[in-house]
What we know:
The structure is a homodimer of 184-residue chains. With 184 residues, chain A is mainly α. Chain A has helices at 3-26, 29-36, 40-47, 50-61, 76-89, 91-103, 111-129, 139-150, 167-183. The model of chain A has no long low-confidence stretch (mean pLDDT 90). At the A-B interface, helix 1, helix 6, helix 7, helix 8 and helix 9 of A face helix 1, helix 6, helix 7, helix 8 and helix 9 of B.
Amino acid sequence: MSRAEATKARILAAATAEFSAYGIAGARVDRVAAAAEANKNLIYVYFSSKDQLFDAVFDAHVVRVLDEVPFTADDLPGYAGKLFDFYRAHPELLRLATWHRLERGALEALPAVAESYRSKVDAIAKAQADGVVASTSPPAVVLSLVLALAATWGSASASEIPSEDGVAVRRDAIRRTVLGLVAS
Amino acid sequence: MSRAEATKARILAAATAEFSAYGIAGARVDRVAAAAEANKNLIYVYFSSKDQLFDAVFDAHVVRVLDEVPFTADDLPGYAGKLFDFYRAHPELLRLATWHRLERGALEALPAVAESYRSKVDAIAKAQADGVVASTSPPAVVLSLVLALAATWGSASASEIPSEDGVAVRRDAIRRTVLGLVAS
């Protein structure tokens, strides 16, 4: 890695932490520069603006991982459990995605996200046609519910009820709820 | 209503729209003053700071409505359906709650929210003891999943998959998924 590439990588890492914590409006390029031990002007040279720096972070951390958890339409409970684990391992992802939704609008406006959703909906439609998934709800509705359940205890969730219940209990509850949805 | 009360009410209404759209860091007191047709200094006289103006909005719009949808532990599918309808009718609520989570931290730190959660968890525990709700998952886990499902298509949801499916189809899918959770 060249020295310029190393600096860019440090800036991106610092910007990920900054945007995850403060969002787009709240982020400060000064803090990113200090954390990355980089010159503030260099950030503008490399990324043009705070907004474009956010785009770079979002592209690196949210868009690229869309398909990191393999989608298994014939095993939606297993998929939901793996997605739950993935969100736990990468707490910044749901925060960045939520900032995007609040400050920029729906993620589906991004071509990579729209394409990822479309292929998952198609796979569920096929699983329904094959009788592997119940056809009670339309495939897009099934996908939305599965994603909502997997994100239940995510960092920006609407439902962070405090409890002593462990990770395994939560994962199991998500899996069983999705199983009910798939089998209903 | 006195003239001062009327001005305060206009400021709160304008601040609700501003914070819902832009969050705490992104909100501008100038815009609130212009929208409320109020003097900017008056906002500081009444509410001290932008942060305390957010507190007032949050208290009026999120905390006070916590129990507006009656909680029915013996009919969790019905509760989830009504909560879904409530979120649709008040799209600013989930946005304000999500801004709070991202910019201030978990809602449960607020006494009124913690108390509301606690009484709901107790009611589910009782319904489980009575055999009305399955005891497969701990009561706090059940509540989290019900709240997550009801917010699936909320304005800051992790799962806004585009689809042509109507409101009734979505509400029905939420109700049936909660029914599976309750009966499992």
